[in-house]
């Protein structure tokens, strides 16, 4: 099947490779000329495990091509839209990129198409896209048949290709049997995972899923503040809770809050959807509030422990919003950098993939090639992202090269007993230490 993917960001790039590996002929389109030039050289401008080698083999087999020109979609039966839907100033999803693509499609479309909305969009957006295309066609005096299908994406950064190739579920909102047939063919390798539903249900499932996962995280983070006060350990508490299959062990890992390009913006967008519909989403409001205050609570704990931070040398290990990505969007580590800067600390940092993007925002930080370089002669270490290179550091040796062995573990990624045995003053999140 010939498929065009519009918007070659994290989702578009991953879907292009996954669809290529599933045997489709893929055309990747983006307005960003540099991005397309990079893809054409076989270089993916994002870091995701397994993507580049698969891209190269697909390019060699001529199964994937790239273009800046949307009118190249002519021979594609399916057009997938994966452009960004960032938060507007008022929290609503900014649909301007989607609307622009819809306008362009209305202008250039000459043959029947199934248009698949991959981006995360509020309920009703597929109808909006449909109207924009119809209006453009009217202006051109043509009537070319098309159907809009909602097919939200559930991949996680850091394991995006795995998630796209072996999804737990594929949600598809469409109305006609013809669209169902095409979507079954598109996902022929994983067709047993498809849930067909209405377009509006499908649009809602995406926001509901992210909001629920964010709720689990804020729940455990708030509880963490309590456990350490009452002499309990949130890691053990979460483990005990998670053994009940009705609760489940996943997304109960306490830390410095959720970040990334999705949870903060999608919870915000769902709150705005509630506001527009005059339905108060008070639980979700609390989820957001806890997430914002979690990082402040953690920073305050650091300050209380260290007295003041003025001119103190402090190392931040991990900058990305989670391990195995180069994405720093809404990363909690950046809020820690803000706090340290405001309080006059001298900051060094290490991250395997996030230093390039961070250095343009925080040029005053001393970026180091290894975690050991970053922590040398520091008076405190903050673990902000649990990259394997950081968690598996030789912490025993590390204790000998710091000025003071004070360790703040923002991800509960280290063993507190082991750390204390090696001489650290260890502070985790919701971890009771004597
Ligand atoms: N990042 C994730 O992990 C993830 C996972 C699931 C769903 N989503 C959703 O998928 C969507 C895309 O997210 P992302 O992180 O890949 O975005 P991104 O910002 O990384 O990439 C978006 C791409 O769209 C391109 N673009 C913008 N306007 C265009 C146009 N008119 N024509 C062609 N290309 C255009 C941009 O140049 C950019 O390369 C969002 O709605 C997001 O919420 C993201
Ligand atoms: O127990 C947990 C699990 C996650 N996090 C944090 O939550 C954030 C998001 O993590 P994760 O969900 O793994 O990453 P994303 O790549 O943002 O993926 C989420 O957002 C995507 C975009 O919508 C969806 O497609 C995915 O299904 C959804 O998991 C990160 O900052 C994590 O550190 C925690 O603090 N505790």
Please write out the topology:
Layout (H helix, E strand, L loop, with lengths): L1 E5 L3 H12 L3 E5 L3 H8 L10 H10 L3 E4 L10 E4 L14 H13 L4 E5 L7 H16 L5 E5 L9 H6 L4 E4 L3 H10 L7 E4 L1 H29 L6 H9 L20 H14 L5 H25 L6 E5 L14 H11 L3 E5 L4 H7 L4 E2 L3 H5 L4 E4 L4 H4 L3 H7 L4 E4 L6 H6 L3 E3 L7
Parallel strand pairs: 1-2, 1-4, 2-3, 4-5, 5-6, 7-8, 9-10, 9-12, 10-11, 12-13, 13-14
Helix pairs in contact: 1-3, 4-5, 8-10, 8-11
The chain binds nicotinamide-adenine-dinucleotide and uridine-5'-diphosphate-glucose.
In the CATH scheme, the class of the largest domain would be Alpha Beta
CATH architecture annotation of the largest domain: 3-Layer(aba) Sandwich
Quick one: how many beta strands? 14
If you compute it from the alpha carbons, what radius of gyration comes out, rounded to the nearest whole angstrom? 24 Å
What is the count of distinct domains?
2
Associated small molecules: nicotinamide-adenine-dinucleotide, uridine-5'-diphosphate-glucose
Head-to-tail CA distance between termini: 62 Å
Percent helix range = 40-55%
Strand arrangement, major sheet: 3-2-1-4-5-6
Write the CATH fold name of the largest domain: Rossmann fold
| Structural class by SSE content | alpha/beta
Query: Residue ranges: pLDDT <50 for 5 or more in a row?
Result: none
Figure out the total of helices.
Answer: 17
Overall geometry comes to: elongated
Q: Report the biggest beta sheet as strand number plus sense, adding barrel if it closes.
A: 6 strands, parallel
Name the beta content range: 5-15%
Catalytic activity: UDP-alpha-D-glucose + 2 NAD(+) + H2O = UDP-alpha-D-glucuronate + 2 NADH + 3 H(+)
GO molecular function, one term: UDP-glucose 6-dehydrogenase activity
Active site: 262 (nucleophile)
Enzyme class: oxidoreductase
């Amino acid at each position: 099947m010939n498929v065009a993917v519009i918007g070659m960001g994290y989702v578009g790039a991953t879907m292009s490779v996954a669809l290529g590996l599933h045997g489709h002929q893929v055309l990747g389109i983006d307005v960003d000329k540099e991005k397309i030039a990079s893809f054409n050289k076989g270089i993916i401008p994002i870091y995701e495990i397994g993507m580049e080698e698969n891209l190269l083999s697909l390019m060699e087999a001529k199964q994937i091509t790239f273009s800046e020109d949307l009118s190249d979609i002519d021979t594609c039966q399916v057009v997938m839209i994966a452009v960004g839907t960032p938060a507007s100033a008022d929290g609503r999803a900014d649909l301007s990129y989607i609307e622009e693509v819809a306008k362009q499609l209305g202008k250039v479309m000459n043959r029947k198409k199934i248009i698949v909305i991959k981006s995360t969009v509020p309920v009703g957006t597929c109808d909006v896209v449909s109207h924009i295309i119809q209006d453009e066609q009217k202006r051109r005096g043509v009537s070319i048949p098309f159907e809009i299908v909602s097919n939200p994406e559930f991949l996680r950064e850091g394991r995006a290709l795995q998630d796209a190739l072996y999804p737990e579920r594929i949600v598809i909102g469409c109305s006609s049997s013809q669209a169902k047939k095409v979507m079954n063919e598109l996902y022929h390798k994983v067709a047993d995972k498809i849930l067909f539903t209405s377009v509006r249900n499908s649009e809602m499932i995406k926001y509901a899923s992210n909001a629920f996962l964010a709720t689990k995280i804020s729940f455990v983070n708030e509880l963490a503040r309590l456990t350490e006060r009452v002499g309990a350990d949130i890691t053990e508490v979460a483990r005990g809770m998670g053994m009940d299959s009705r609760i489940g062990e996943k997304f109960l890992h306490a830390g410095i809050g959720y970040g990334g390009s999705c949870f903060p913006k999608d919870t915000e967008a769902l709150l705005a959807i509630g506001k527009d519909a005059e339905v108060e989403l008070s639980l979700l409001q609390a989820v957001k509030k806890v997430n914002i205050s979690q990082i402040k609570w953690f920073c305050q704990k650091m300050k209380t422990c260290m007295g003041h931070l003025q001119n103190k040398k402090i190392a931040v290990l991990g900058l990305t919003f989670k391990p195995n990505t180069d994405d720093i969007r809404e990363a909690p580590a950046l809020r820690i950098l803000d706090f340290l800067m405001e309080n006059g600390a001298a900051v060094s940092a290490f991250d395997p993939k996030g230093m390039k993007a961070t250095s343009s925002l925080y040029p005053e930080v001393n970026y180091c090639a290894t975690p050991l370089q970053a922590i040398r002669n520091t008076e405190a270490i903050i673990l902000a992202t649990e990259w394997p290179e950081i968690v598996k550091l030789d912490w025993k040796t590390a204790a000998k090269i710091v000025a003071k062995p004070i360790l703040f573990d923002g991800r509960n990624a280290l063993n507190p007993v082991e750390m204390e045995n090696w001489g650290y003053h260890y502070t985790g999140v919701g971890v009771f230490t004597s």
